[in-house]
Write a structure and sequence with these properties.
The chain has two helices and three strands. It is an alpha+beta fold and 74 residues long. The longest helix has 19 residues. This is Integrase DNA-binding domain-containing protein.
Length: 74
């Protein structure tokens, strides 16, 4: 298994502070999984469901990556 088989890539839109996503990218061609975050509670309350704080989104992305790496381990 390669070390780059699963990557976590942070994204932040230009011009919009305190918001973004973490992309969990799989080298085997599976679709990426995104964890969206917004540190502005007002925007978070009115935006799409599933938007959390940056810390929660990062943690969720890390948990997914770890579990997938364990699943792929020989």
């Amino acid at each position: 298994m390669k070390d780059d088989s699963i990557r976590i890539i942070p994204h932040s839109p230009p011009g919009i502070p305190d918001t973004g996503s973490f992309e969990v990218r799989f080298a085997d061609g599976r679709p990426s999984v995104y964890f969206y975050w917004d540190n502005n509670p007002g925007r978070r309350a009115i935006s799409m469901s599933g938007v959390t704080s940056e810390e929660e989104a990062r943690s969720a992305a890390q948990q997914l990556a770890r579990s997938e790496l364990k699943r792929l381990a020989p």
